[in-house]
Structures are given as structure tokens and as C-alpha cells.
Task: structure prediction
Amino acid sequence: MNHANSEYWLKKSGEAYFDQQVGRAGAGNDSYREQERWLNEFFQQQAERLGRPARVLEFGCGFGRFARLFEGHERVQYHGYDFSASMVQPLFDDPPPGLVPLDARVRVAPTVGEAFPGEHFDVVFTVSVLIHNAPEQAARLVSQMMEMAESHGNVCLIENALVPLTMKENNWHGGCWVHDFAGTTAPQFDTCVTYRLSDVHSVYRLSMPVAGERKVTLIKGDAPERPTTLDELKLLGMERLRLATALLENELNEAAALQADAHDQGEFARYAEQRRERMQQALVASIDALEKLPGQPAVDVQGERDDVDALAARLKQLTDAAAVTITRLTRAQTLRSTVTAALAEVHAGNSLSKPQETPASVAVRQKRPDASVEAQQRLAPGEEFGWDRPGDVQWGCTDERFASVCHVMNVEWIGIRAAAAGLPGHKLVVSASRELSAPAVGQIAQILTSNGITRLVVHGMSAPLAALVSALKKSIDISVYVVWHGAPAMWSMIHETELFTRVSRLLERGEITRIAGMRSGMQPALGPRGFARQLFNLPPTLSETFGAADALLPVPERGDAPGAVVFAPSWHVLHKNLPTNLIAANQSTKVAQVWTLDGEIRLPPGLDDKVKRLAPRSLRGMLDTMKLVDLVTNVSLIDCHPMIELEALAVRTPCLRGPLFMDALDDHPYVAATLVENPLSVVDVMKRIDAVLEIPREDMLGMMADYDRALREVSIARYCEFLEL
Result:
């Protein structure tokens, strides 16, 4: 796959491609139905031949059309591979119940061999994948797929209709080709061609030759499979070749027309330049002549005077515009030089040892993260920062007072980003593991300036964030505020101490205007610029129809067992207290199932029989899951203002909590109903679970709605005070 094609699919949204396919099907494209029919019949034949369900691997599974078709099939054990996390995102946001845990069945990696190392399959198949690859790349991918097939297995390619030669058909998606699979793309394998599965597709079933002798066969219409020759296949493929040639010729004609237009416009531009010079010369000459005529007989030159004034006004307008452009370019160059010098000064004076830029509080992760979590923890290829990305701004509330505010954070730290996502204002993300280049910092400075940003709110810290703050302070006029989401107790972890040391140095240099903590009573640790009051996080702002018209499917199924479903979505570190939450829910007689996202946690025998481990999920997936359950539990030992509680509040599912010692709203009825005073007591957590489940739903909804309203008022008021808005 060439670079343009690869970039297209790496950035392509799986949801957008799903919408495209729905639109094509609605417009009368019946090839999808024929593909599904053929695969279903072929898989059943293989299962009957093997005497067991066929293990199949889809190469290029995308958003999951065939994953959902075959996830519950009794004769098929489906697996999927793709190299684009963005294309697979919808599948991980909404895993089919029959494929859970999804990361055991569907994987994202640069190559299929890396995705399923050491595994082999009865059938490896593609549907319209190799047409997006140049000839030599398509041939290489076919060989990779054949290496994944069992010795008795097949590689099935549902690709372009039969053609006598390989050629580029158009420039869509960075380039599309039609391949001569039987002749030049896969000449080393036995090939059975199913001619014209639809108007645009044929099927090429490949297998390893026996005794070194290659066989080529043909299935045409309802006739049985029979031997054929490459010459016969070339004749049959002439019709599709004519179509491909016509499409390519049409694109060439369009390109030629554009080239002709460009030539004409260039010629017109040259003529205009010559005419402008003549007009300018005539203007100067006319003005000089009129100035030399004082005292001469009056001559009626009003018509000429009007023309001269119009030309002079236009000339002045163009000159002024050029002056503005030159000034802007000069400022941009000055900014670039200032940024480069500032970054050099920051790096030269940085005596801290470089920490591993993953905070200890979120260091425990799945061995194989699911694609949706991976996508949240990185920037697109070639990107050094992200500005107002949809995932960072779509959950925020609206408040005009924050139009000049930008929140900046590290892309890897999902919890902090979820907290900032609910706040009003612009959002900027950078990587904690990669230093920003001078051009990138210059772009950031220009974006902030052009958007009228006067206050930068830094959430958390990292070496790249510290360097960015120092460079911006030396380059543009902006006030920097820091929100520290940790607590002094967390400084038992060396990484947390190192990061706060970076904040301290920025404070010492006067580059931070103000700093606030998410724990009450933390001001003495923050120094003289510390904000005395506590900041509050905001719940995500959801549409009124969230979880109704646009809800994802329930995963997993709740089942028929009587009782409640409890969700404990935290991770397994000491201060999160996850085992206590799981054991208490597991032992409650009112609970039928306990869901957790931590696939690595292991509990003693008899204490986890109700526990179901789910795959990690995006923020949207987290909200949808919370809406499905009866209770969320997050009874932690040390927490600031946890987003788990606020996300549950947004979808109106009650959430248990430990003592947070907030300096407002701790006396609210909802807090009293959900608070566990002793988070280390399994008995206390069990009692609170049972008590909350007994509260009538209408009463709970009333308490939560009032708490949501009061919380938003306090949070916005505190941030306005902190930022002096």
C-alpha cells in the first residue's frame, strides 16, 4: 500500500465507512448480499469437510460487517485483522457478544503475522482489500495470508472481477487497482476462479499446489468446477478490462482539462502582469503631465481624472495589502526564532533526569490494549499535537466566559483528559513521551493567538508540557494556570514527585500565574501562588437522547439471573481499592453480575464467581456500559474528584464512593446515599450496595439531578474565580 493510500485508511473513520456502505446498499448495490451468501455457503462446506467449525480469519476486517454476520454462527469461528485502529474503532466500541473478549478474536497490528503470531486458520479471506494495494504489495500480502493458512486451508479473495492484466483503475483513496490474480499476482498457487460473483467482483480461491504442479480451475454460473487455462481466463476478463480502461481514461481526460485550465490561467496571469505594468506607467506619466500644467488653459480632463483616481486607489489597496502580508510573515519569522531559542534554553537548563512519561497511577494496563484505548492514547501519524479534537471537546459544556481559555494536557493520560473534556473552552493535547519541535510550538503559538487565547490551563505535567509552557511564555502574551490532579500522598511514587518538581521550577521562574489542586487543604503544598479553594470536575455534557436513539448494543448481555448488575471500572492499584469493590459486590445477595475492565486481576476462589471481565473501552463505550447497569462502584482509598463517579452521574446510574473530603456539597443527600465511610471494610461496601439498590428509582433520579445541577454551578464558579474570568 503506497503512502497516500496507507494514510487514507489509517485516518479513515470506521463509522464514516459504515455510512458509505449503507448508502451504497440503499442505492441498489447488491454485491454485499452476494459476498455474504458466498462466504456463508463456503464456510459451511469447509465445516462439513472438517467435521468441526471452520477457523476463519478476515484480512481487513474494518468496522466489523462480517464480524457481526458470523459472530454467532455455529459452523464458523471468526477472527479479524486490520492495520487501521480508526477503521476498527466501532467494533471495539460495540463488541459483538459472541466475540467477547474481543481482543482474543480481533486484533490491530502493522502485519497479520504480528497480530496472530504462530496461529493458522482453515480459511483466510478478503473482501475488496487488495484492490487498494499496488501490484507488488498485493502479491506480498497474498503470500503473507497463505502463510497464515493451514496446510489444508484456503485463501479466498473476493476482489475485482476477472481481468487479463493488472492495472491502476483510478486515483480514489490514494489509488485503486484491478489485479490479474490468476496470472501475475498469485502465479505460484492453485487457483479456482468463481467468475462474476457480481458485476464488479470475482472470487479467487488459492491453495498450495500438490507435488509442485499448479492447477487453474473455473466456476462459471451454475456449471461445476472444471479445468481451465490462463488464456481462457484472459478472454473472459476482457470485458472488465474495457471498463477499467474507460474509468482511467475518464480520469485522465479530467486531469487534462484541469491542466489546460491551469495553462490558460497562467497565460492570463502573465498578460495581466504586463497590462498592470503598462497601466502603472501610464498612471505615473499622466500624473506627472498634469502636475506640470499650472497656469495653462483649462482643459476638461475629468474623465481621465476619474480613471486615474480609480487606478491610484486600487494600487494603494494592493500596496497596503502587501505591506500587511509582509508584516505578518516578519512576525511569524520572529516568533519561530523566539520559539527555537526558548526551547533551546529550556532543554539546556533542564537538569531533571528524564522520567518514563507514564504516571505511576495509571501504569497498570492490559497486556494487549484494545484498539479504542490505543486510539485515545496517541496522535495520528505525523501529528505532534491535537487542537480541539472531537473526542476532547464533544462532552464539554458551553460558557462564553471561557472563549479565551485553552486546556492543555498529555494525550496518554485518559483520566485527566476525561476531566478536562467536561470543562468549557478549547482543548490542546500533546504527547508526554515526545518533545515538541520548534515548528510545532510555533504553530501552537499562532493557533492560540489567532483564536484569542489569553489563558492556558495546564492539566498535569510532563517534560514536553514544561518545555511548551516555557517557550510560549517567551514567545506570546499568555497567562498560564496549572491544575494538579494528584495528591501529596501520591508522591510516594518517584514519577509523581519528578513531575511536580517540574511544576515547582515553572513556579520559581514566574512562568505560572496560579496553581490549584483537586484536593481540599492542599494550598500549603502549592506555595504562595496556590489557589485556596478546591476545583471540581464536571460530568460529561450529554444530549437528551444519549443512550436512546444512538445507544450502543448491550455488552455483555445481562442474562436471566435475578438481581442487579454492578460495574467496577477502575484499575488494580492500591489506592483504587478494586478488590474490595469486586468482593463486596460478588458477595451481595442482591447482585447477579459484577463487571470489571481489569482483565488481569485475580481474586481468591469463591470470591469472583459473579465477576465478568470486559475489554477496555473508549469514553463513549464507558458511558454506554454505565447506562446498562444498576450500580457503579468506585470506593477508593485516595481520589481527587474521580471521573468514574461523574460519568455515572451523567447517565443517571448511581455510583458508590469513598470519602473525598470535598469542601462543598459533601452534605448533599446523593452523597449521603452513596458514601462508604470505611472503604477498607467489605461489610460496609456490601451494606451500601444493598442500601442503594433498595432506593426507589424515581427518588434516586431526583437526588442525582439536583446534585448534577449543584455540582455544575460550583465547578464553573470555582474555575471562573481561579482563572479570574
Observations:
- DSSP finds 24 helices and 22 strands in the chain.
- Confidence is low (pLDDT under 50) at residues 293-306, 351-375, 548-555.
- The chain has three domains: 3-236, 339-526, 564-723.
- The longest strand covers residues 149-160.
